[in-house]
Structures are given as structure tokens and as C-alpha cells.
Amino acid sequence: MVSQEFTVKNPTGIHARPASMLVQLCNKLSDNISIVTDSGKTVNPKAILSVLMGGMSKGTKITITAEGETEEESLKQVMELLESFTE
To answer: What CATH number does residue 15 fall under?
Structure first.
């Protein structure tokens, strides 16, 4: 299991479009991916409603965890996608 912290940088947070992109990516990955917000809320990144209800606005600190055979590559892909959400 690998994990990494990330602070949401997008001025509008993880709203509909980035949430959809995150869900699409995570559903393609074979590893188990989970997100926990700084308020302790667990978000299922493979379910759009869970991501949208996660309340991940700008400045929210989240911890992304990947577990499985290709966990390091999966975590890298999720982090790259999150980093791309700048506007």
C-alpha cells in the first residue's frame, strides 16, 4: 500500500468536470484507490457522487492511497491528474 498527500489547488475545487475525469481514471485502474479528506471523510474515487459529495474545495488536504499489484503506477497517474486541475 502506498499513499501520498495532496492539497487541492483548483480555485473551484474538484467540481463536476475534474470529478468525472478522476472517476474515469480510477475505474480504469486495477488497484484499489481511496481518498481521505483532512476532515476525515472517505471518498470513493470510482463513484462520481462520492467524489462530488466529498467537499474537496481549494485548499482541502487529501490523502490518496493505492493498494494492489501496480499501486505505485496507479498512485502516480492519480497524482498527475490531480496536479493538472489548476483551473
So the answer is: 3.30.1340.10
**Assigned C-alpha cell, 66:** 493505492
Span 41-77, pLDDT tens digits: 999 999 999 999 999 999 999 999 999 999 999 999 9
CB atoms within 10 A of CB 56: 27
Q: The cell 459529495 sits on which residue?
A: 53
For residue 82, give the 3-state DSSP assignment: helix
Beta carbons of 78 and 64 less than 8 angstroms apart: yes
Active site residues: 15
Q: Which domain holds residue 13?
A: 2-84
pLDDT digits (tens, 9 = 90+) for 27-47: 999 999 999 999 999 999 999
How many domains is the chain built from? Answer: 1
Regarding pTM above 0.90, the answer is yes
The amino acid at 5: E
